[in-house]
Amino acid sequence: MPVPGASPEYRDLSDWAVTKILEAIKEGAIQPGERLTELEVAAQFGVSRAPVRDAIHKLEKLGVVVRDGSRATYVRSWDIKDVYDLVVVLDSLVSLSVRLAAAQITPTQLDALEAILEETKTALAQDPDNLLAQAALDAKFHVLIARATGNRMLEEMIENLWLPHQLYHKEFLGRVGRAYSLQEHTELLEALRSGNPAEAEACARRHAQAGQKALEEAIHSRAAVLEPR
Fold it and tell me: In order of start, what are the domains of the chain with their CATH numbers?
């Protein structure tokens, strides 16, 4: 299991290990169904087993890894219904965050969202098939909105749920189009600038319905196991 390695720079090594394991899954270095052992991952990262053990527990809570009857840990193989269920929950939280943020988001935060849109345009122009980059910018955009609510619990829930969501972003974008997030976020930013919570939430819900419909179509068209990229 070749895991990308680098010297830990984060104060919390378990969070660092979570990030590195997720990167390995997204890049295909770790495959769905592959077993994760504390000893092997710790050796690859050059850290002790304790932060790796904590990282695996965190990933288990997020549904990224699972344990079998012998307590061995494996990368979870998700089917498209699993992804749909995740998106339904995440969309509800996103809509809530948009409604709360619309009433209090600052000009500085709006400018930061605008900057993310510019990053997204650049990413699409340079490499429209780099779905990892697009997924990261998608998450960055929505986490920033959640942060603007001032509700730390909501921000953490959205940020955590976006981790497994990013693993299967290819399936989503393959259904709605590569530029979907850019179009969606442009409209959402304008709604947030209006300062009207009801209008902003309605915009978020329209986008959620479109995305969920795309995944529903995928569920009906096939029941295959998804491969993250």
Answer: 13-75 (1.10.10.10), 80-221 (1.20.120.530)
Q: What is the DSSP letter of 68?
A: -
The CA distance from 74 to 63, in Å, is 11
pLDDT digits (tens, 9 = 90+) for 58-109: 888 878 888 887 788 998 877 777 778 888 899 999 999 999 999 999 999 9
How many other C-beta atoms can be found within 10 angstroms of the C-beta atom of residue 123?
19
Beta bridge partners, 73, equal 36, 67
Across the beta sheet with 35-36, what order do the strands follow?
35-36, 73-75, 65-67
Do residues 98 and 200 lie in contact, with contact meaning Cβ atoms separated by under 8 Å? Answer: yes
DSSP-derived 3-state class of residue 198: helix
Please give the C-alpha separations between residue 197 and each of 11, 53, 96, 203, 205, in angstroms, as whole numbers: 37, 42, 10, 10, 12
Q: What is the pLDDT of residue 141?
A: 94
pLDDT tops 60 at residue 171? no
Phi–psi pair at 64, nearest 5 degrees: -80, -35
136 vs 177, more confident? 136
Q: With contact defined as beta carbons under 8 Å apart, do 97 and 142 qualify?
A: yes
d(CA 133, CA 166) in angstroms, rounded, equals: 10
Mean pLDDT on 180-195: 89
Provide the pLDDT confidence category of residue 3 given band limits of 50, 70 and 90.
very low
